[in-house]
Amino acid sequence: MSKNNTYILAIESSCDDTAAAVLHNDKTLANVVAGQAVHEQYGGVVPELASRAHQQNIVPVVHEALRKANVKKEDLNAIAFTSGPGLMGSLLVGTSFAKSLAMGLDIPLIDVNHMQAHILAHFIEEEGYDKPEFPFLAMTISGGHTQIVRVDSYFNMTVIGQTLDDAVGEAFDKSAKILGLPYPGGPLIDKYAQLGNPKAYKFTKPKVGDLDFSFSGLKTAVLYFYQKEIAADPEFVEKNRNDICASIQHTIINILMDKIKKAVKQTGIQQVAIGGGVSANSGIRKALKDAEQKYGWKTFVPKFEYTTDNAAMIGIVGYLKYLEENLAETGYTDTKVMAQSRLKI
After folding, report:
1. Which site in 14, 42, 309, 345 is 20 to 30 Å from 228, CA atoms measured?
2. Burial label, 108 (beta-carbon count in 10 A; 0-12, 13-18, 19+)
3. Parallel, antiparallel or unpaired: strands 156-162 and 109-113
């Protein structure tokens, strides 16, 4: 098949979601995700349990993706997979499966940086969604990462700001845990925040230099606030949950927006894209769209299914690498590529 008729199978297993997708060029034919409810009782992801669940899920998930796409494995041109960053045990399951399948089919194997994939998910062809033009600023916000990245081309990215401690997703989840909400708590804070007063309670914003972030101080502020109010009224959270969640979310959004506004001013780039699981948050999406109207930015918010960990975003990076490295002609593949728990953009 020519490079203009390319089928990519993509595999994502960096954390607690086992995902597989099939792309025809830059268009998604199937995007299947199997979650892992086993972690809910522990209040967070347990790495060993995650890797075991990946082993159970990966074959049926890949099979279902191929079935939904109506594509036979013999029609595939390449296998793309997440090589990092992520949980090592989880990454190894996806890496080993991808290597074996690529070798068995004798087709190229393409390793993908998970963080690049969150950014390049904007280039999946999707009706009703514009694609950013280079250069643009990408704010990647997830459970494990908070970064502002200058993107000059598909594979020329520079991190210009990042968290010094907790990621924004951790700030949401840890605050939710303090309030007694079940894991994952971030979406619940968003849910209750939509019913509350965002200015009911004031939480201080951490002071860190330039474009970097810090969220550990906010978590501590929420804890001290909780302890003080519960001591005075044991039912305080129950009575004021909506307002508390709205105030926490309002503070987090202000921290993010302050930094991205500063990045726009410093770089002169007025195209801003967001990605990562926390970009599903309704308040953050609204704040970004409001900024577009107020400051004249061009903003890009991905389709909901491409925000959380998914394989379609791995597939689009695989497709772009397939073209850039001319793999249709060379057929080159490096089966020695290793999974890496830490991997920079």
Report:
1. 42
2. buried
3. unpaired
